[in-house]
Amino acid sequence: MKALGIDIGGTKIAFAICQDTEVTQYRQESSAKGSYEELLSALAAIISSYEAENSIGVVGVGIAAWLSKDRELILRSANLGFDQKYLRRDLENLVGIPVTVSNDADAAIWAEYIFLGRPTGTIVGFTLGTDVGGGIIRNGELVTGSHGLAGELGHITVTDNGLECVCGDTGCLSTVASGTAIVQRARELARENPQDFPYLLSNPQISIEEIGSSDIVRSIKSPTEALAILIPAAVAIARASKLLARVLDHDTLIIGGGVSELGEPLLTLIRNEMEKNISMGPSKIVPQTYLASIGNKAGVLGSADLALNMLGEKL
User: Fold this and answer.
1) Do the strands 279-280 and 132-138 form a parallel or antiparallel pair, or are they unpaired?
2) Most CB atoms within 10 A, among 70, 154, 182, 203?
3) What is the distance in angstroms between the CA of the first residue and the CA of the last residue of the chain?
4) Domains 2-109+296-310 and 118-292 agree in fold
5) What is the CATH number of domain 118-292?
């Protein structure tokens, strides 16, 4: 059965046909903020355009939002600016195709689980993007908790007296390790000591306030620049994993999201910090840690498979 996977993040919306773990007809658009009704109308139009060329059995939507346990109600979507919306019901009524809704980070980590061969054990995943999302999979089951909010790993407190987060708390992992936070740190470092960041500042066409992810990718060619920019994020991720290990004793940690494209420099720093900071009594619990392997198509693939699971099928 063909499934249409949709991934609604903080800055983009992606769509693709998924069948037998293959992703085709992939497209991506920016998610300019608008009303819920505008989003709903745009999604319905795009689904109809796919349906005109494909026999779609189900639509799986992953969205950056806090969801009710039954995934019927969007409790709040801080980045998209709406709450208390019945997206699954409203969209299904418009398109006449079965629709499921999941958290976007859950969907992305679920896709990585598929490509690991659907192993047993406990997998924890961080998605480092506009914010930090997360997912927990235990023996083939997505852990969502009593109220549907398990796996909100970006809101683990990792630092005292930290910045305020979109969730209303302070010192959350999202405020240190998200792509937004890393870009902000790079700009601050460049303002304070520009002479120390020749790679970061090698594009004369942009100002410090215009530094973005592509400039950070260039800067990490320098080990010293990479260390300065990325070490707070690496320390925070290692600390969050240590806290989770005390509850989950996870054997696998996946680092996904757009920030994971920084690659081995980021992964090496995280592994080093975990080796230093993950001791627990007489034991040293260091999960196998990997960069996500699917890239920007993980969200659509995971959403599609989670939708098929609701019908008793899978990719």
Assistant:
1) unpaired
2) 154
3) 8
4) yes
5) 3.30.420.40
